[in-house]
Amino acid sequence: MSSASPHPASGTVRALVDAQAAARAQALYALAVDAEPAASIGFGALAQQCQQVATLLAQHGLAPGDTVSLVMPNGLNTLRLLLGAMYSGYCVNPVNLLSSAEQMRYVLEHSDCRLVIASPDWAERVQAVLATLPRAVALLVCSPDIAAPDSLLSALPPTQTAAPAPQAMALLMYTSGTTGVPKGVVLTQANLAANAHAISAEHRLQAHDRVLAVLPLYHINAFAVTMLAPLAHGGSLAMPPKFSAARFWQQATQAQCTWINVVPTMISYLLEGDAPAPEALHGIGFCRSASAALPPAHLQAFEQRFGIGVIETMGLTETVAPSFSNPFERQARKLGAVGKASGCEARVIDAQLQPLPDGSTGEIAIRGPQVMQGYYKNEEATRAAFTPDGWLRTGDLGHRDADGFFFVTGRIKELIIKGGENIAPREIDEVLLRHPLVLDAAATGVPDAHYGQEIMACIVLREGASADEAALRAFCAEHLGRYKTPKLFYFVPDLPRGPSGKVQRLKLPDWVAQAAARA
């Protein structure tokens, strides 16, 4: 178990905000990047603005304990609406902006939200969805930009609500599952506070540290790592409207960021772009990669090209993002590992849910203060997610080595079973990514009359490269052997991904069919 542990005295989002407001009222918490005019929030102002959010929600008929949904892109106003609602005892439901109308309708109906706050460019679409719901849900239109005329909070008096309990529901976030309808993950005030402290301790973050916040706040990584963690250590975040590979390094250096938090897809884009002069990046201490496995070849290329060490981590929405992390000390990290358990306990279990010895492959399970309470209004899925003795089943396949490092080889649902042999698709991905023609790749299983399943690989070529199936097939045969070499190769412009950057493997066959139809 990590030395990082929850702080009982800081077991709510309000406690995190109030502690920083009392200790460092004038210090900067959040800075808008590329904003005109310039905008920022200090810790003291944040506490007051959180109380103004309580007034806003009360004016629209909500009471603490109710759920408010947000359909908004990143912005300082989005940030303070999320924090203000949780600070005042409400539950927030950030809606994934990549949702289809059908998915959004499901989330807004299932969440029992009383109010939806949407940015102006989303208002019409949200209103159309709300018109189809069986209950009345109010819509409030608000800019994500803190300096905009419709940012709503500036003239409101503050309201001091009763402090929320640590076990109160604070966040309802829906997972973008590859099959079925999304599941609503219930996270408490204590879950969120525990992981804010664990992240800060794991990465040894201090008040002078500032992170570039390019991931969307409707995803658990950005929500926990870039928004909440600075509240635990008194640091700050710099927030552009969205990720831009072309502007990334300029934004990070101009905002004087000391660390960056990205997903593997972003690393691949940055590797394709221009590299700043090495001296320009000296202030950035480390790059944190999360949410999906980072191919070792990309990690090594990033460190070599930009001179910034990569700390690979992993977590789930169900664990408030990170539950594994490589060590802060660069020489102690292990290439290809997601790290050691961070702020929690972790083990590997077999199909009978019994612990396996180090080196054995099985399902990774987690227990700790950041683990969710369950799935909202879904007792069956909640029961299935936990072992009888309270360990969360992650659905990830992997093993732990003798030093306590965990290695993830894939998802149980995504395992390719060819002729009775289990094949981890990530093994095939990593070989393909080593070929000079390949920018991105993902393998999956497809039905086969003889083997049960065969292997299909989707390839995104580097710019200017030409498709050469024979070369890729020979490369795979050399490094994987004939049995694990894909039978089918498809060249596609991109891969289907969820908001965290994870490839949605089970959608690949349909993705290929759609790409062929468009061609």
Report on this structure.
- This protein folds into two domains: 386 residues, 3-Layer(aba) Sandwich (Rossmann fold), CATH 3.40.50.12780; 104 residues, ANL, C-terminal domain (GMP Synthetase, Chain A, domain 3), CATH 3.30.300.
- The strands form six sheets. Strands 2-1-10-9-11-12-13-14-15 form a nine-stranded mixed β-sheet. A four-stranded parallel β-sheet has the order 4-3-5-6, sandwiched between helices.
- The N terminus is likely disordered.
- The longest helix is centred in the first third of the chain and has 17 residues.
- A hairpin with a 5-residue loop joins strand 19 and strand 20.
- It starts with 12 loop residues before the first helix and ends with a helix.
- It is built from 14 helices and 25 strands.
- The protein has 519 residues and is α/β, with parallel strands linked by helices.
- Helix 6 packs across helix 7 and helix 12 packs across helix 13.
β-strand percent reads 15-25%
CATH architecture of the largest domain: 3-Layer(aba) Sandwich
Q: Give the number of helices.
A: 14
Taking pLDDT < 50 over at least 5 consecutive residues as the criterion, the unreliable ranges are 1-9
* Net shape: globular
Q: What is the makeup of the main sheet?
A: 9 strands, mixed
Keywords:
519 residues; Rossmann fold; GMP Synthetase, Chain A, domain 3; 2 domains; 4-stranded parallel sheet; 14 helices; 29% helix; disordered N terminus
How are the secondary structure elements laid out?
Blueprint (H helix, E strand, L loop, with lengths): L12 H11 L4 E5 L7 E3 H17 L7 E5 L4 H12 L3 E4 L6 H10 L4 E4 L4 H8 L7 E4 L27 E6 L9 E5 H14 L7 E3 L7 H14 L2 E4 L8 H7 L4 E4 L1 H9 L13 E4 L6 H11 L3 E7 L4 E5 L14 E2 L3 E5 L12 E6 L6 E2 L3 H7 L6 E9 L5 E6 L4 E3 L2 E3 L1 H9 L4 E11 L3 E10 L7 H12 L7 E4 L16 H11 L1
Parallel strand pairs: 1-10, 3-4, 3-5, 5-6, 9-10, 9-11, 11-12, 12-13, 24-25
Antiparallel strand pairs: 1-2, 7-8, 8-18, 13-14, 14-15, 16-17, 17-19, 19-20, 21-22, 23-24
